[in-house]
Amino acid sequence: MRGWNHFFWAFIALGILLLLDRSLSHVHAQTNCLTFGEARQAGWFAGIKLRPAAKVKNAVEKSKGGTVESVRVCPGPVYKLTVVRKNGSVVTVTVPAVAQ
Hints:
It is a single chain. Helices cover about 50% and strands about 25% of the residues. By secondary structure, it is an alpha+beta fold. The chain has two domains: about 1-30; about 35-100. A three-stranded antiparallel β-sheet has the order 1-2-3, with helices on one face. A hairpin with a 4-residue loop joins strand 2 and strand 3. The longest helix is centred in the first third of the chain and has 29 residues, at about 1-30. The termini are far apart.
């Protein structure tokens, strides 16, 4: 009986580890965005003509009616902007970074 008890708890621990692994990989997928300086050092901008971030920021502020608090560069490349609207809500906007 004691052996089955150990097997049961080992099974539970394995299940918890698998759930944690999936949740951590989801967090990692969200954190692969970089600041402009980090993206430049990583070579993300080499040979790519990007849209000016200032123009993108101004257009998003105008369309969403708020203030852009942060701009990150994500793979694709895309800009992810966090906007705090006048009513206090927070919106994340994703805009293609490559110039047309």
